Amino acid sequence: MPHEPEPTAPADPAEPRKAEAPETVEIFAVGDVSAVAGPVHREGPSDLEALTPRRSGRIRIEPGPGADTAVLTWHGEGEDPGPARTDALRVAARVAQKVFPAADVTLVSPTPFEDAGQLTADGFREVAPGRLTRPAGPFPLRRDKADDADGVYADPLSTPWNFVPAETAAYTALASQTPRRVLDLGCGHGKNTRLLHRYGHEVTGVDVSPLAIERCHRYLPELEFRVASADDLPFPDAHFDAVVDIGCLHYLDDGTRARAVAELARVLRPGGTLHSRIFRPRPAAWLAAQPFTTERFGLTDAQVHALFADRFSVEAHREDPDMHYLRCTLHTIDATTGKAVPA
C-alpha cells in the first residue's frame, strides 16, 4: 500500500524539510459503531473500506474540479443495518472535510437514509431521495469539555484528530527501514499503529484511555494494544528499537512529560530513536476549540531542548510553523564513566 511520499529534498540536506501536502493520505477513523480505512487521493476517486458490524461496505470519495465538492457514495451488499451505514458515512464525511476543507460534501446512497436526523444535525439537507449535501466548513463538535482521556474519546465524532490523516511525516524514516520493534505512544484509535504494522514492524500501541484501546481491539484485532500511562510503561528495559509519539508528549503536564521521557529512555535500546511530533505553543482561539480543558498547550524550542537534552541527540527534520518534527537518538552510557554519550 502506498504511503505518504517524502517532500522534495532541499538544496542543503542538513536543513529541515519544508512541509508539503501529499497527494495521497492514509485514513483510519472511528465512529460510534463503525470505522473507515484506506488511502484518500486528493486528485482522484478513492475507496474507503467501511468497517461495520458485517464489514460489507465501502465508500467512494470523488473530489470535484478544484476540490470544491466531494461526493461520497455508499457501496454495499445491503446486509449492514441502516445505523451502521449512516455512522460510516458520517465518519467519512468528516474525513472528506479534513482532506478537502473547501469542498461542499454530498452523501449518496442507493436507498433512503433511515437516520436523517443525525445527518441533519451534521448540517446536511436532503436534495433528493438518498442524496444529501452540506456546505463546506467544519462539523459541529460537543460543547462540553472533557477532563480526562476517556472523556475526550467518549464521542468519537467530536474528537478532531480522529479524522486527520495518519501523520506519516513524523516517522518517514520508519517506512523504509528493516522491520523493528516499535512503540506507538498515545496511539488513540490506532491509525498510526496500523500503518507502522503495514510497514512491516512489530508494533505495540499504548494509550491511557481504556475506551480508545477497546476500539483498537474491536477494529484492529490483529494488532497488539495495551492500556498504559506514558510515565509508567509495562515493558522491560531496552525493549524497543523505536518509539513514535504523535500527540502524546505535548498533551501531558510538565511533570508527567518529564517522567514520560525518562520512561522512553528506559524502554528504548541505546541508539534507538524517538520520532516525535510536538505542537508549538497554541493561541487562545485554538485552545478554546479543543474538546479537553487546558490553559496552555505546546512547547517552545527552548522547552523541547530542555526536555530531551540529557538523554537524546535531537534532529529537527521538517519545517512547520505549528509543529516540531523531531528525530531523537538515545544516548549510550559509557561503561567506564557512567555518563551519557551520543550514540
End-to-end Cα distance, whole Å, is: 33 Å
- Shape label: elongated
Instruction: Outline the low-pLDDT stretches.
Output: 1-15
Q: Which whole number gives the mean pLDDT?
A: 88
Number-wise, the strands total 18
Q: Major sheet: size, sense and barrel closure?
A: 8 strands, mixed
Strand order of the largest sheet: 1-15-16-14-13-10-11-12
Structural class: alpha/beta
Order of helix and strand elements from N to C terminus: EEEEEEHEHEEHEHEHEEHEHHEEEE
Q: Percent helix among the residues? A: 10-25%
Q: How large is the radius of gyration?
A: 21 Å
> Total helix count?
8
Percentage of residues in DSSP E strands:
25-35%
Question: In short, what is this structure?
Answer:
The protein has 343 residues and is α/β, with parallel strands linked by helices. Helices cover 22% and strands 30% of the residues.
Topology of helices and strands:
Layout: E1 17-18, E2 24-30, E3 35-41, E4 46-51, E5 57-63, E6 69-76, H1 82-99, E7 104-108, H2 116-121, E8 125-128, E9 131-134, H3 149-153, E10 181-185, H4 191-198, E11 202-207, H5 210-219, E12 224-227, E13 240-246, H6 254-267, E14 268-279, H7 284-289, H8 301-308, E15 312-319, E16 323-330, E17 332-333, E18 340-341
Parallel strand pairs: 1-15, 6-7, 10-11, 10-13, 11-12, 13-14
Antiparallel strand pairs: 2-3, 3-4, 4-5, 5-6, 7-9, 8-9, 14-16, 15-16, 17-18
